[in-house]
Amino acid sequence: MDFTMNMEKTMGRLKNGAFLSVRSGTKVNTMTIGWGYIGIMWNKPYFMVLVRPQRYTNELLGEAEDFTVSIPFGNDLNKELGICGTKSGRDIDKSETVEFIPSKVTKSPVIKGCDMYYECKIKFKQLMNGDEFPEDVKSASYPLKDYHYMYFGEIVECYEGE
């Protein structure tokens, strides 16, 4: 599949919501993301996702070796995106909201019914340094000073949904 074409499709839809999913041992969770970055790092394709420290997904990502991003292009999964963006996997079983299906390469599953899938191996993570942000960004996006962790996932598989 053409990485550049998929990148353009993905970035155009990401702001409308996507599912970031992770498996750590027997625990599986997904959350809604609207921010991210796809590009070339260290001469390979990467998907960088941002997760706040207090999120249950962050806890699982800290123990996992991979993650997936499942992107719906239409509005069919808007209800599910809303639930997964407002409810914690600590409090609800997300498999009652979305259908997890096996991915092709990673241990982390993908979400059934999406149009584009990225499977990523975690290669690097870093907590953002809030001291480096402009004041307008800090006040608008980080009033609680809960700066995101950035997870750099090497894209090991990318494909369209059926």
Q: Tell me, what is the CATH class?
A: Mainly Beta
Q: Please state the overall shape, judged from the principal axes of the Cα atoms.
A: globular
Element pattern in H and E: HEEEEHEHEEEHE
- The helicity comes to 10-25%
The CATH superfamily is known as Electron Transport, Fmn-binding Protein, Chain A
- Count of distinct structural domains: 1
If helices are DSSP runs of H or I spanning 4 or more residues, what is the number of helices?
4
Named at the architecture level, the CATH assignment is Roll
> Main sheet, how many strands, which sense, barrel?
7 strands, antiparallel
In total, the number of strands is 9
CATH topology: Pnp Oxidase, Chain A
**Poorly predicted regions:** none
SSE layout and pairings?
Elements: H1 3-14, E1 18-24, E2 27-33, E3 37-41, E4 44-51, H2 56-61, E5 66-71, H3 78-86, E6 100-101, E7 110-111, E8 116-127, H4 135-141, E9 149-160
Antiparallel strand pairs: 1-2, 1-5, 3-4, 4-9, 5-8, 6-7, 8-9
